[in-house]
Design brief:
The complex is a heterodimer of chains A (about 300) and B (about 400).
Chain A (H helix, E strand, L loop, with lengths): L6 H5 L16 H11 L6 E6 L3 H6 E2 L2 E2 L4 E4 L5 H17 L7 E8 H6 L2 H10 L4 E6 L39 H6 L5 E5 L6 H11 L5 E6 L3 H4 L6 H10 L6 E4 L2 E4 L9 H5 L14 H22 L2
Helix pairs in contact in A: 2-8, 4-6
Chain B lengths: L1 E4 L1 H12 L3 E3 L8 H11 L6 E3 L4 H14 L3 E5 L1 H6 L1 H9 L5 E6 L13 H5 L6 E4 L3 H15 L8 E6 L8 E4 L3 H8 L16 E2 L5 H33 L6 E4 L6 E6 L2 H14 L4 E6 L1 E3 L3 H8 L4 E6 L10 H10 L7 E6 L9 H17 L6 E3 L5 H4 L1
Helix pairs in contact in B: 1-2, 1-7, 3-5, 7-9, 10-13, 11-12
The chains are: A alpha/beta (about 300), B alpha/beta (about 400).
The structure holds thiamine diphosphate (TPP).
């Protein structure tokens, strides 16, 4: 499965997520969603499913919706099950001659709705094999409720429930490896990607996921200017740094075969990614050098493992 | 077509005759048999439903409401903790005006864990915006399930419907029951053709918005109006159902109430036992009667007040605790309904049958005995009591 990517051609497609939604400037979620939806073939319809999140409250505030396609939000923890229901209805109605054309099913949920509260629902839907794409836009915390830690929050990050104080040093625990958990479901397609550069990687992974039959999963890095504490204009740069430091490697697992999608020309040190973000500021205080060392060691170890798996 | 079926099989059979588009399936005693029977219909090609074996009741309700939003007719069954796990989504289904049909096989709620019948589960969901219809026996369980869809799917109503029956007592006991022919059922329930749905090609739809204050209340008022409108529709569907079955249903059933001075108000399978007690007392010349509530949501308040207007003393029998410290949920509704009567009967509440505790004809006779005393003395004594529990001394 692959598609020839032509940026000009893609951006000329009509937007399926309209402008005028209420996401913050410099937020990754909006560009992730419009980037993924752009991968749909023009003639195909979609039903978008959304978990309660920043994305949901900003894109469908009654009586306005930012989606050109049908859209359903039902709760925080059940977006995969909700999507299962829509897909089940499609199968039934198709069988009974009551719907025409091809409809694709795409779920968007944050890391809280995916790594944490919605994990059961996601796991169930993937195991049952619904023909759908589940996209986690990972902004590494519960942003909608005001920047609380999730199991996707990286170690040391400051959030409102992992504050930095005289004793506390941000989040104590590791980041859960959700992409690997999804690989363990033995579904046809899993990828980790990000809206980087000219969007080729996001586009290709999204296209593969949408046009592979069966349950597919995309984990997409989606920085949050409020939660990560960076100036809105630096969004693209932050994503690039996440990828080039190998904090967020880009790869895909197709039918169990691991493949790197991108290898940085020069693997940058993790500090380059940490420094521009307020949530890691305390790591640069005197006496906290060990935190940066730990962060670097952990990234190196995971990167090595990924290289082994992908045979790169 | 006569048959001998358990309540669960009767409901599963009704589902088979409906041949819904989507079913969400997850086991919990005592409703487990419903998805089991249905699985065999699927396996034998007797239905072509999309049968979704979810990983929890939470997902079952999520699947059902989403399928309904997508334009499909969806059904599921559950009990007790399963219904509790669906709780958040019960609100979503009702507020998105998605007429899912759920067979609730009533069972006590934890804790301590208990698998037997009482009404704590569905009573806990009474304010979620679902229509609730209760059955006394297997025949009613079957009939109610068939009436659910024409009620819930009506454009002026568009609310989800929960049909309830008593766990084990009704769900597992075999009774003779009259089944309708499948083509008659199909004609009765009709096709599900909602005006708007997610999969409609011409008109993309957005469901389940973030509803801001300038709109939220309007939506809730519309939902409340729909519940009011449901009352008339329930009676209309009952009349249509009488035409095809010969069986007549109202919002409640009045049993020997014409001249009753002492009356019980209750829900579900205990009505059979209570009727036997009423018959016995009538033989002795005591003017006893019974009101069996069939439709609890919408609550038939005005109609119930009329039915009880000429009684002297009434015992409301609650098969669930509300822990309100002021009586059970049926009592609260009944007492409120009677408030506008110029002359009100004396009213007491008796909580009974929790977690499957048995109730016998003699127990109901005792209740009527209490009512008779109240009618004479005008003294109710303690208004809110529990019946059938062991005394402290016995437990020790
Ligand atoms: C059952 C439940 N618990 C809590 C909430 C409150 N809540 C809404 S969105 C949210 C956090 C969402 O975080 P995430 O999924 O990471 O998405 P983000 O807002 O960061 O985009 C929470 C906790 C809820 N809606 N439902």
């Amino acid at each position: 499965m692959s598609t020839v990517y032509n940026l000009k051609q893609e951006v000329e497609k009509p937007e399926r997520l309209t402008g005028g939604h209420r996401l913050c400037a410099g937020c990754g979620a909006g560009i992730v969603v419009s980037g993924v939806l752009r991968a749909l073939d023009k003639e195909d319809r979609a039903v978008v499913v959304n978990a309660t999140s920043c994305l949901e409250v900003s894109t469908f505030m009654y009586p306005y919706t930012a989606y050109m396609d049908s859209y359903i939000h039902s709760a925080f923890e059940n977006s995969a099950a909700t999507c299962s229901g829509v897909e089940a209805a499609y199968n039934a109605l198709k069988r009974r001659g009551k719907v025409e054309g091809t409809v694709k099913f795409i779920t968007f949920a944050g890391d809280g709705g995916t790594y944490d509260i919605g994990l059961q629902s996601l796991s169930g839907a993937m195991e049952r094999g619904h023909d759908m794409v589940y996209v986690c836009y990972d902004n590494e915390a519960y942003m909608n409720t005001g920047i609380q830690r999730s199991s996707a929050t990286p170690p040391f990050a400051r959030t409102t429930t992992t504050p930095v104080g005289s004793v506390g040093q941000g989040k104590k625990q590791n980041k859960k490896d959700l992409t690997e958990i999804l690989v363990a479901h033995h579904i046809p397609y899993v990828a980790q990607t990000a809206p980087i550069g000219n969007f080729k990687d996001l586009h290709t992974r999204a296209y593969n996921a949408i046009y592979t039959e069966g349950p597919c999963f995309l984990n997409v890095l989606s920085p949050c200017p409020r939660g990560w504490d960076y100036p809105a204009a630096r969004l693209a740069e932050i994503i690039k740094l996440a990828v080039d430091t190998c904090v967020w490697p880009l790869f895909e697992v197709e039918e169990g075969v691991w493949r790197l999608s991108y290898t940085p020309k020069k693997k940058l040190p993790v500090v380059d990614f940490l420094r521009p973000q307020g949530r890691f500021r305390h790591m640069f205080q005197k006496g906290n050098e060990w935190m940066i060392e730990e962060a670097q060691a952990s990234v190196d170890q995971k990167w090595e493992r990924l290289l082994e798996r992908t045979g790169a | 077509m006569s048959n001998r079926l358990t309540g669960n099989e009767a409901v599963a059979y009704a589902m088979k005759q409906v041949n819904p588009d989507v079913m969400g399936a997850f086991p919990i005693t005592p409703s487990t048999e419903i998805p089991e029977y249905f699985a065999s219909y699927v396996a034998n090609g007797e239905v072509n439903t999309e049968y979704v074996t979810v990983e929890s009741e939470h997902s079952s309700m999520s699947v059902c409401l989403a399928a309904q939003a997508a334009g499909a007719r969806s059904v599921c069954a559950t009990s007790s903790c399963g219904l509790a796990l669906m709780y958040e989504l019960l609100y979503v289904a009702a507020s998105c005006r998605l007429p899912v049909t759920l067979a609730c096989v009533n069972r006590a709620l934890s804790g301590p864990i208990n698998i037997n019948n009482d009404h704590s589960d569905s009573m806990g969901a009474r304010d979620t915006g679902w229509i609730q219809i209760y059955a006394e026996n297997n025949q009613e369980a079957y009939d109610n399930f068939l009436m659910a869809m024409p009620i819930g799917e009506t454009p002026s109503v568009r609310l989800p419907v929960m049909t309830c029956m008593d766990g084990f007592i009704t769900s597992h006991a075999v009774e003779n029951i009259d089944l309708l022919e499948t083509d008659v059922v199909r004609k009765f329930i009709g096709e599900y053709n909602p005006e708007n749905y997610l999969l409609k090609k011409e008109n993309p739809l957005a469901v389940g918005p973030y509803d801001v204050s300038p709109y939220y209340m309007e939506h809730k008022v519309q939902e409340a109006e729909a519940m009011k409108a449901a009352k008339a529709r329930i009676l209309e569907v009952a009349a249509e159902f009488a035409n095809i079955s010969g069986r007549r249903y109202g919002l409640f059933e009045e049993y020997r109430m014409e001249d009753a001075q002492l009356a019980l108000v209750l829900i579900g399978s205990s009505a059979g036992t209570a009727k036997a007690a009423v018959d016995k007392l009538r033989e002795d010349g005591i003017k006893a009667g019974l009101v069996k509530i069939r439709v609890f949501r919408p609550f038939p308040g005005e109609e119930l007040a009329l039915a009880l207007a000429n009684t002297r003393a009434v015992a409301v029998m609650d098969k669930s605790e509300g822990f309100s410290a002021n009586g059970g949920p049926l009592f609260a509704e009944t007492r409120s309904a009677l408030y506008d009567l110029k002359e009100r009967p004396y009213l007491i509440d008796i909580v009974y049958g929790l977690g499957g505790r048995d109730i016998k004809v003699e127990d109901f006779e005792k209740v009527f005995g209490r009512l008779a005393d109240i009618a004479v003395t005008g003294e109710t004594g303690p208004v809110y009591t529990h019946m059938g529990q062991r005394s402290k001394e016995e437990i020790a």
